[in-house]
Amino acid sequence: MAVTIEDVRHIALLARLGLDDARATSLVQELNGILGHMEALGKVDTDGVAEVSGIGASGMPLRPDHGPGVLLKRSPEGFAPMMREGFFLVPRLSTHEDAGDSA
What we know:
The chain has helices at residues 5-14, 21-42, 76-79; strands spanning 83-84, 87-88.
């Protein structure tokens, strides 16, 4: 499946990006080049090749998050205007006022 100039312009419109004709044409070529590479990779025979170890349904294994705590010169309550249960409270954005009760 090839990318067309109309596809690029449609995505640019959805993303609200200003795109001139020269850049749109360049993007069509780049994207079709990438798709060509993916098509070539899809033709590679991978029978008998072991799957990548450590990545699968369970995701990437992570190390434990250990380390010293962050030492502050004063407690968070000393510089944060509002806190609840150890979390900073911030004012709700005006665009989210209808999302429920304010903090």
